[in-house]
């Protein structure tokens, strides 16, 4: 692009410029100007759209930083290259953004939802959900619901309704589904990310070999280093042809069979179940301790008038793997079954 004499090389693009650019998005894309807003009204940002503000707030939050030491598959992750909850989240955000750009959906909203989707996870991944469930009235502690509590109550960021809705329903087990197509993209981005990078970790730990992978994965998506692109394209092409976010049936069938195999051979394998037992024991004993000793939950954490059980669950849920292990060993000594 040629710059005319006297014309500035750079200029400020403010929020209004960005909102005008959203007019070129797909008809079903979520426009910033159509947001349902925030729980607490606040002045609009001069330069950023509301969804871009959400993205920045999530990135700079304490809860987001804690994801770096939380389990994806392997507790208290050893080694430099094992996927953590933080690297998983970054992968999800990038996959979601790429699909949003290709489909003309709101890239900033997609990124904000993806960055926040796992922010409510407990230590030790989904094991923590099972261990915390007996201590909540609903009987089912879930990281998505806790993420909303965290973002609204424990570390309130005053995010937009659309971002919170996408975080609330980012997993397929949650109904109703996300209201926005950007929230639906996060569902697919999450599954694409964890199935591909968890396979890499499984190879690294000797839990799987290429011979264990269903043949239709190679037939449909090619070699594993092409799976992210191929799976994303299966979402993009089907969505563009059908007018809503979805994945073509053949690709979805192959991915579902692969996911079933991952649960059988990796996520619920005997080795993982041994890890699950000691991890669940750590969480259970910590929660029981803080229920009996509510004075040991730090001042300023959560709501002062919450019952001891609620404060204990909120406090332990916020631990990283390492913080949970350290707290346990300080209070009770060596963890039975922990392999260092």
Explain what you see:
- This protein is mainly α.
- The chain is 56% helix and 0% strand.
- The protein has 15 helices and no strands.
- The protein is globular, with a radius of gyration of 22 Å.
State the helix count.
15
- How far the N terminus sits from the C terminus, by CA atoms, comes to 58 Å
Q: What is the beta-strand fraction?
A: under 5%
Q: Write the H/E string, N to C.
A: HHHHHHHHHHHHHHH
Return Rg in Å.
Answer: 22 Å
Instruction: Describe the sheet with the most strands.
Output: none
Structural class computed from helices and strand pairing? mainly alpha
Contiguous runs where pLDDT drops below 50 for at least 5 residues = none
User: Would you report the number of β strands?
Assistant: 0
* Mean of pLDDT: 93
In quaternary terms, these chains amount to: single chain
Helical content, roughly? Answer: 55-70%
- Note the overall shape: globular
Features:
single chain; 340 residues; mainly alpha; 15 helices
What is this structure, in a nutshell?
The chain is mainly alpha-helical and 340 residues long. It has helices at 15-21, 50-59, 62-66, 85-103, 107-116, 126-132, 143-154, 161-168, 181-204, 215-221, 227-242, 249-267, 270-292, 308-317, 321-332. Helix 4 crosses helix 11 (227-242), helix 5 crosses helix 8 and helix 10 (215-221) crosses helix 12.
């Amino acid at each position: 692009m040629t710059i005319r004499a006297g014309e500035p090389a750079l200029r400020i693009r403010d929020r209004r410029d960005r909102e005008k650019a959203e007019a070129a998005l797909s008809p079903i894309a979520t426009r910033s100007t159509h947001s349902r807003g925030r729980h607490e009204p606040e002045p609009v940002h001069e330069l950023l759209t509301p969804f871009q503000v959400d993205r920045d707030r999530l990135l700079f939050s304490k809860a987001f930083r804690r994801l770096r030491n939380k389990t994806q598959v392997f507790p208290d992750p050893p080694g430099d290259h094992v996927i953590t909850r933080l690297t998983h989240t970054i992968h999800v955000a990038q996959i979601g953004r790429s699909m949003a750009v290709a489909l003309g959906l709101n890239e900033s909203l997609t990124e904000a939802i993806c960055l926040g989707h796992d922010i409510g996870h407990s230590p030790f991944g989904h094991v923590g959900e099972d261990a915390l469930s007996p201590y909540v009235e609903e009987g089912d502690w879930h990281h998505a619901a806790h993420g909303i509590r965290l973002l609204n109550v424990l570390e309130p960021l005053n995010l937009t309704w659309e971002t919170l809705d996408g975080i609330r329903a980012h997993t397929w087990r949650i109904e109703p589904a996300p209201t926005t197509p950007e929230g639906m993209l996060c569902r697919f981005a999450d599954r694409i990310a964890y199935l591909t990078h968890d396979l890499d970790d499984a190879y690294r730990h000797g839990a799987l070999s290429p011979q264990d992978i269903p043949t239709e994965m190679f037939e449909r998506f090619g070699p594993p280093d092409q799976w992210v692109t191929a799976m994303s394209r299966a979402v993009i092409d089907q969505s563009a042809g059908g007018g809503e976010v979805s994945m073509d049936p053949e690709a979805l069938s192959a991915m579902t069979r692969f996911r079933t195999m991952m649960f059988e051979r990796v996520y619920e394998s005997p080795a993982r179940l041994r890890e699950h037992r000691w991890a669940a024991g750590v969480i259970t004993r910590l929660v029981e301790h803080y229920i009996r000793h509510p004075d040991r939950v730090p001042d300023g954490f959560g709501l002062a008038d919450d019952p001891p059980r609620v404060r204990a669950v909120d406090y332990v849920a916020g631990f990283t793997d390492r913080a949970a292990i350290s707290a346990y060993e300080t209070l009770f000594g060596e963890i039975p079954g922990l392999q260092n």
